[in-house]
Design a protein that fits this description.
single chain; six-stranded mixed β-sheet; three-stranded antiparallel β-sheet; 13 helices; 21 strands; 18% strand; globular
Length: 441
Amino acid sequence: MPDATTNLYAERRRRFMQQMEGGAALIPGAATRIRSRDTDYRYRPDSDLVYLTGFREPGSALLLLPNHPEHRTVMFVQPKDPAAETWNGRRLGAEAAPATLGVDAAYSIDDLEAVLRKYLTGTERLYYGFGTHQDMDRLVLELLPKLGSRNVEPPSQLVDPGTILHEMRLRKDETEIALMRKAAAITAEGYAEAIAAIRPGAGEWEVQAALEYAYRRLGGEGSAYNAIVASGDNATILHYTENDRVMHAGELLLIDSGAEYKYYACDVTRTYPVSGKFTDAQRAVYDLVLRANQEAITYVRPGEHVKRYHLHAVEVLTEGMVKLGLLKGDVKTLIEQEAYRRFYMHGTGHYLGLDTHDVGRYKLKGAWRALEPGMVVTVEPGLYVAAGATDVDPAFWGIGVRIEDDVLVTSGGNEVLTAAIPKASDELETLLQKRAAVARV
């Protein structure tokens, strides 16, 4: 029988259908992806389908029919197949799906086209998002003309379900917030273990292994995204993921990694001195980025528009870069000219949830939207000075610093979900020096 979790998904489906203007919505599951030859990547279900059903098997889809007299929620799943299940794992099957998932009816995914013909004939509006699921896109495009007859027209309106669903996902409910707190707690443990692997002569891959071991050991699905473990000048490459370099004394190590728990992502960045102590130039850049991070977080609160904390981070960083000699000129003019983008070339945050870069519109009717309770954003200012940068003091060459936290908007302000992961420069030096002392014993 359906449990409390099943009822949660049923309530989400009810809310989604309540906002539909009749018609039908088709939400496909993710396809399996080939890694090489006959080996697949580890399967990760589609976030929209997980949000509405909790179902994790490949070869699935959900059909919502708010005006159907009996079957308002219809699930398509892989058929039971003992031979296939011996090789690739157990399947729920159509017979067990209604009771287990709390849906009205279920069919084999092999019968999808025929069943859709039955349910969609005469439907004026179809909610379906093109561009993500190629096989399903093809099926829908080929099916639509077949739904008409002399007396019945095929759906005349195609609507992206994200206009409803992604706005729902943008505001996290209490169940989701609890899962994201858990993802953050697991990530904190991963970073604590990673610190033990940071030392001159160690490989970036050792730090990555420490992080990901903790994520799996503590019940997470693994990393929410490809980890960035970037030492030396690698830290000035925003999406460096090779993680195959040996760390050296006097360098910084930038780690951008987060655990995924029940498919909810954590997204954190911390930057550490490999030797256990910042150089003067590293400390100056680090503390500037830290101040931008801390002050930007204060603008993550109800009523502030979603771009406000980025604009403040830009102000702090630009003013600081002028003081450090990285930029020259009037701060206001430099901001207007976007001169800061030489060393700070990305935004200060994004939505976070079932996807690392989660869904939801940033603008409404052309204006930046206001933050609301239940939204979760990252706050991630940084500065990156590549080796050999012209007109820059060589003391700053190869310094890449980013400090990123996950912040929940609450009715009274905010909650920093990743507050347990240390980031004060003095605290980092103390932790790393204690690690080094233990290693020498």
